[in-house]
Design brief:
The protein has 480 residues and is mostly helical. The protein is 61% helix and 5% strand.
């Protein structure tokens, strides 16, 4: 990737001080956004992430209480045994796996690489180490792809991803960095006007975790508003084909093993981290303690309502929103309404938050809340374990009150970031990216594209009006 230094004298990074040119702050921002610096920062972040897991790697993960007391819990080590990998079972064909196919493939690859280690316990540790190397490489790729999507002059904002405290803490809890890297690469490919490659990468991302699907809704809305549906169709078709290329063989060979992920997600109740779990704990009327079927419907209805509001915003905003802004809003809505909100899901949100709103202070407030939740959940699980009869010596964890305060803080800070993004969309002059000249650096064919139509509210709130733009003229059709 090349480094472009903006020549404008009136640019700034993170909404802060002005940059006067390559010799001043602008030159510093370009240096901070260079590939070498971003790779070094990413590697540093992953070294810190590995160091945070050293207590578990040294044996704490063999004690249920100790791994939470040390806040070093990871899914990777126990799932080596729980998913049958230690016994030589192949994901999906030999044992059902609770993750999509690409994650299962990563698990099998790591298991194959350590297969010759005779000691079962050491083999589990080596499985973790090999997986960490893969995930660390994904983190570097994700940071560089985020820098590419940010556009010339804004590459340095990817440092907020590389050195994100919450991402560092959660990097090796699960395999989410694989999907994060593929999603960032897909957005970067779209930004580079490589629509087919964007589809392939996003399709592979969906084969790893379902969350990259959030990109397609915003793409559809923005391409519809800009009259770029052909480009969207190519990207979507490439994504479907890439997903099928990975999933279809497993669907054919092991249909029940492949379907386990979907049934597991559907049959899962309100879990730690979700707002529904808090509603259940406090017995909130209607929202607390619903049956599983009702919970699935409530979660889906609230998410659908949020998506409808985002769609209206995308089509009616005075200026077409930037792609990362809508992607962030959809993902935030999904997490806030979902039945599960695991600590590692912050890995999904960080790159989109940075691209959507490269402002430091609200971002740091959210990061602080995520860090508090990261430590809070492990402390709370100690209390749950003790309540179920487990023996805990030493640190006893935190009370449910402190845990739910941390849960609420994370929920509210993500909501605050989303509110700021909505404000930036409604008032584009407040968007720090657009205030300095660019339109949508991650928008690809949408960047500086003219609108084909826009929704407007009729005077007096009497329905909506569709304003069409054709050959430089604007026409209107009412839609009551």
């Amino acid at each position: 990737m090349g480094v472009d230094v903006p020549e404008s004298a009136n640019t700034r990074f993170d909404g802060g001080a002005e940059r006067s040119g390559p010799a001043g702050p602008a030159g510093l921002a370009a240096a901070l956004g260079s590939t070498g610096v971003l790779v070094a920062a990413s590697v540093l972040g992953m070294v810190l992430a590995f160091a945070e897991k050293i207590p578990c790697r040294s044996g704490a993960w063999n004690s249920y209480a100790s791994q939470f007391q040390r806040a070093c819990y990871t899914d990777i080590y126990p799932l080596y045994y729980g998913e049958g990998l230690a016994d030589g079972k192949v994901p999906y064909t030999g044992h059902p796996v609770e993750y999509p196919v690409l994650i299962g493939g990563a698990m099998q690859t790591a298991a194959w690489l350590v297969r010759n280690v005779s000691d079962t316990m050491i083999r589990g540790r080596e499985f973790f180490d090999v997986t960490v190397l893969l995930l660390a490489a994904c983190a570097v790729v994700g940071v560089l792809a985020t820098a590419r999507a940010a556009g010339p002059g804004w590459r340095a904002q990817a440092l907020m991803v590389a050195l994100s405290p919450a991402l560092i803490l959660s990097a090796f809890v699960n395999w989410d960095l694989i999907a994060m890297a593929l999603t960032a690469l897909g957005i970067a490919a779209w930004a580079a006007r490589r629509g087919v490659w964007a589809g392939v990468l996003l399709g592979l991302g969906v084969a790893a975790k379902f969350y990259p699907l959030v990109v397609f809704g915003p793409l559809l809305l923005l391409c519809l508003r800009a009259g770029r549906m052909r480009e969207f169709a190519k990207t979507l078709a490439a994504a479907v084909l890439a997903w099928l290329a990975v999933d279809l063989p497993v669907m054919i060979v092991a249909p029940s093993g492949w379907a386990h992920f979907y049934t597991f997600s559907k049959d899962r109740g309100a879990d730690w981290g979700s707002i529904w779990y808090m509603f259940e704990h406090f017995n909130v009327p209607v929202l607390g303690n619903p049956g599983l079927s009702a919970l699935n419907k409530l979660s889906a209805v609230f998410f659908a309502a949020a998506c409808a509001a985002i769609a209206l915003l995308a089509l009616a905003a005075p200026r077409r929103p930037r792609l990362p802004q809508l992607c962030f809003l959809v993902l935030a809505a999904f997490l806030m309404t979902n039945k599960v909100w695991s600590p590692q899901y912050v890995v999904w949100l960080v790159p989109l938050a940075v691209l959507a709103r490269p402002r430091l202070w609200p971002y740091l407030l959210w990061q602080l809340a995520e860090v508090a939740y990261f430590f809070g959940i492990w402390g709370y699980l100690l209390v749950v374990y003790a309540a179920e009869g487990g023996q805990v010596t030493g640190y006893q964890g935190i009370s449910s009150g402190w845990y739910f305060a941390a849960l609420a803080a994370r929920f509210l800070t993500v909501g605050l970031l989303a509110a700021y993004v909505v404000r930036d969309i409604i008032n584009p002059e407040r968007d720090v990216v657009r205030a300095l000249g660019p339109d949508d650096p991650a928008g690809g064919v949408l960047d500086h594209a003219e609108d084909r139509f826009r929704l407007r509210f009729n005077p007096g709130g009497r329905g909506l009006r569709i304003d069409r733009v054709s050959a430089g003229r604007t026409g209107a059709a009412s839609a009551s």
